[in-house]
Amino acid sequence: MRLPFKKILAPTDFSEPSYHALDMAVELAEHFNAELHLLHIVPPLHVVPVPVNVEIPLYESEMREAAERAMEELMEQRVPKSLTVFASVIWGDPADEI
């Protein structure tokens, strides 16, 4: 008996192993005609007081923009247009957010 999956979560850190997991998630989504939910979690920056001028909000903004660009490229390169896909880039601890 097949389980009727309706939603499949594919977390990614944009590493090669996560791409292999995404390929399997795509196969499952196609097989079950399920929604594919892509998720990337940007971990918080742990700041240690140092005497340098680092703009944390700017850094976080750049990290988020880079992750969103990487997510768009990932979708274009590895996810068929025929699938229903939802992609999210969020802040947090991956262990807590997933």
Give a written overview of the molecule:
- With 98 residues, this protein is α/β, with parallel strands linked by helices.
- It has a single domain (7-43, 52-97), classed as HUPs (Rossmann fold), CATH 3.40.50.
- It is built from 3 helices and 3 strands, in the order E-H-E-H-E-H.
- A 3-stranded parallel sheet has the order 1-2-3.
- The longest helix has 23 residues, at 56-78.
- The chain is elongated and about 55 Å long.
- The two termini are 28 Å apart.
- The relative contact order is 0.24.
Pattern of helices and strands: EHEHEH
Number of domains: 1
Tell me the distance between the termini.
28 Å
CATH topological fold name = Rossmann fold
Share in helix: 40-55%
Percent range for β-strand residues: 15-25%
Q: Helical region count?
A: 3
Q: Name the poorly predicted regions.
A: none
CATH H-level superfamily: HUPs
Task: Just give the CATH class.
Answer: Alpha Beta
Oligomer: single chain
- Rg, nearest Å: 16 Å
The average pLDDT is: 90
CATH architecture: 3-Layer(aba) Sandwich
Strand ordering within the main sheet = 1-2-3
The description of the largest β-sheet is: 3 strands, parallel
Query: Count the strands?
Result: 3
Classification by helices and strands: alpha/beta
Morphology: elongated
